[in-house]
């Protein structure tokens, strides 16, 4: 055990926060924002606002974003931002999933073509029971907007220039026409090879290795002459394993000669011509008289936003455990390695508080209810988000092995 010896401690019992405390805190925050604004010259305010926005929304691998609050930009520089709203500010966006079955341009490599685009709400390619914003390019689905980018209103149309990002994987085609998908090439010995220039012929050997996360199944590594090419995609490795098992062939050391070519790009950069953008006539700000459907979509969005804030923290916590289900003092969390899903429940409840799927390094919030009432009754609250953010530093300290923050082996009790 790594419990810290704290000696004798004084115990203070403080009353819980109430609405008047919250109002007072916000009042102080806005007063502080006003002081910051006054100390910045007029001509520098817009540039400062842009810099603050960039810093608070940019994701850095080594940072965990607990203290980043992009909303502060609007509180401090509301007037400057309002003056910019006559023209679209976010014109460079990223769409992901262009290699998925849902993409109707699958296999196409975009090279800067300018085409008509519009935004539509349609089932997500990760989970068909949830909705996502799709970019429709030249009348066909291209991909969904990256969750880390700005989101455009459904029904928006215009023109955009589209450029595919470099492929992040390769496909090995066997002599019988079967395919083996390999990604994570940057960690291999052939990271500098441009597989899109031609078809390469090679003999590939599969090496089965334990996952870096003990909760996840073994991974398949593609090797060429004892040098690592990359890792087989989980679904491709699972399929290959099943086929070989049916023929009593061991996966470890399995060798196949085939052609190697770049896989379809998984993302594309979209640069929108702001002068061509048209918004739907029915677009209005959410009001008290909003329809039940609007209220439901809003509740879903709030739950999704909270899920995406909490999911990396819970996922990190699970990576420190040697079991897939952990019951704490407040909640129970479970990881399903087959579906790559994390589920969180309040102890004593059978209704999930949070469901999220982890795929290709991104989190996709999954639905937890079919009505506003279900989502509000069972879903994550703002207090839940704050709770997980408070215990996050201890979790990340355990992962990084930091000596500056000591934690105990029973941190799951905080859950």
Question: How would you describe the overall organization of this protein?
Answer:
The protein is an alpha+beta fold. The chain has 4 domains: 41-86, no CATH class; 92-166 and 267-276, no CATH class; 170-262, no CATH class; 292-414, no CATH class. Helix content is 28%, strand content 27%. The chain has helices at 19-38, 42-57, 71-76, 78-84, 234-246, 292-318, 372-378, 382-400, and strands at residues 92-96, 111-123, 131-137, 140-145, 157-164, 170-173, 179-183, 200-209, 219-224, 227-232, 255-262, 267-272, 325-327, 331-336, 341-346, 352-359, 362-365. The strands form 3 sheets. It has a 6-stranded antiparallel barrel. Strand 6 (170-173) and strand 7 (179-183) form a beta hairpin. Helix 6 runs parallel beside helix 8. The protein is globular, with a radius of gyration of 25 Å. The protein starts with 18 loop residues before the first helix and ends in a 15-residue tail after the last helix. The relative contact order is 0.11.
Short description:
This protein is α+β, with helices and mostly antiparallel strands and 415 residues long.
Largest sheet: 6 strands, antiparallel, barrel
Low-confidence stretches: 61-66, 284-290, 402-413
Spatial order of the strands forming the largest sheet: 1-4-3-2-5-12
Number of strands: 17
H/I helix tally: 8
The succession of helices and strands, N to C, reads: HHHHEEEEEEEEEEHEEHEEEEEHH
Helix content: 25-40%
Strand content: 25-35%
Question: What would you call the structural class?
Answer: alpha+beta
């Amino acid at each position: 055990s790594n419990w810290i010896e704290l000696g004798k401690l004084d115990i203070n019992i403080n009353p819980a926060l109430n609405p008047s405390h919250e109002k007072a805190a916000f009042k102080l925050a806005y007063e502080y924002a006003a002081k910051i604004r006054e100390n910045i010259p007029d001509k520098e305010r817009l540039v400062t606002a842009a810099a603050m926005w960039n810093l608070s929304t940019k994701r850095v691998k080594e940072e965990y974003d607990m203290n980043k609050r992009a909303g502060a930009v609007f509180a401090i520089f509301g007037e400057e931002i309002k003056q910019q709203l006559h023209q679209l500010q976010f014109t460079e966006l990223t769409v992901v999933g262009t290699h998925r079955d849902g993409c109707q341009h699958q296999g196409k490599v975009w090279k800067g073509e300018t085409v008509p685009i519009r935004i539509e709400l349609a089932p997500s390619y990760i989970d068909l029971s949830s909705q996502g914003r799709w970019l429709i390019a030249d009348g066909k689905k291209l991909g969904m907007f990256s969750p880390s980018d700005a989101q455009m209103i459904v029904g928006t149309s215009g023109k955009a220039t589209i450029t595919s990002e470099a492929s992040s994987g390769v496909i090995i085609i066997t002599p019988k026409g079967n395919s083996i998908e390999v990604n994570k090439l940057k960690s291999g010995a052939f990271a500098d090879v441009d597989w899109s220039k031609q078809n390469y012929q090679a003999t590939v050997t599969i090496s089965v290795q334990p996952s870096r996360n003990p909760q996840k199944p073994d991974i398949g590594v593609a090797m060429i002459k004892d040098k690592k090419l990359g890792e087989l995609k989980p679904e491709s490795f699972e399929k290959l394993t099943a086929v070989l098992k049916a023929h009593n062939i061991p996966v470890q050391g399995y060798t196949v000669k085939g052609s190697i070519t770049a896989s379809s790009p998984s993302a594309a950069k979209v640069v929108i011509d702001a002068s061509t953008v048209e918004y739907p006539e029915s677009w209005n700000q959410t009001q008290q008289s909003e329809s039940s459907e609007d209220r439901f979509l809003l509740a879903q969005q709030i739950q999704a936003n909270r899920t995406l804030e909490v999911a990396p923290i819970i996922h990190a916590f699970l990576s420190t455990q040697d079991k897939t289900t952990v019951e704490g003092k407040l909640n129970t969390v479970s990881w399903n390695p087959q579906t790559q899903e994390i589920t969180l429940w309040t102890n004593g409840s059978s209704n999930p508080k949070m469901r999220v799927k982890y795929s290709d390094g991104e989190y996709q919030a999954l639905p937890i209810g079919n009505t506003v009432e279900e989502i509000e009754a069972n879903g994550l609250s703002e207090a839940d988000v704050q709770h997980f953010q408070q215990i996050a530093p201890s979790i990340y300290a355990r992962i990084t092995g930091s000596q500056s923050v000591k934690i105990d082996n029973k941190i799951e009790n905080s859950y």
